[in-house]
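Encode chain A's predicted structure.
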Amino acid sequence: MVDTQSTPARQRPSIVSISSYLLFLFLACQVISLIITLSTAGKIRDAISDAYAGSSLENADQIADVAFAFIVGISILLLLLAVVLGVLALFNNQGRNGSRITTWIVGGVLVCCTGGSLLSGAGGGSFTTGGDTAGAPSGEEVQRRVEEAVPSWTTPVSLLLGVVSIIALLTALILLALPKANAFFRKPAAGWEPPTPGASYPGYPQAPGQPGYPQSTGEPGYPSAPVPGQPGIPPSSADRPDDTPPADRPGTTPPSS
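Encoded structure for chain A:
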């Protein structure tokens, strides 16, 4: 039996492919950012600990540990969400609308996180603590020690990665919302194909040994008339044996005794 419900092949538009490439670019930027964070997080922790060493605070090491865990944790979380976007990009290339909706949700969360981190880095960092609490160092002092502990190239490189990441992510989300992308992610209507000769219609089983279609008489669109004697067709009167006795037939002389 031939499947009469066939789905036409869909061609992926270029904007969907570009959107997936941009999501992969965002993932690459987050991988580089995590590498930079892991290479400098220990130095940042030591700088914060040294800044609080001369104060009267007893939990100076705990403050440094919390700052270290916060920096590393945020970077790992962003990387995991970026990996999710990379997986969703593969499903977007297949035209799955559910993955596109999930991409918008996860991408919106990452836009807020990446944008907030970018603004914080451009504003001079987030190591500002209350300097009036129990002789704690001022925020400017902590920030100065951190900048002295890490290489000078980390701040501009981190800002550049943040700008590239948020531009790539926003562009990818916008491309997925364009009309051409909507047509690609829309579920196509199932087409209809006529059954081939010799196949029965759906829902009607074909009798054993019977052809699916009658033979043609030579004229297109008109089947041939039923032929007496075929299986399932009673024979005509002309083909039936004459069982009438000769004496009862009209115009027949009965044999003499």
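The first strand starts at residue 5 and ends at 6.
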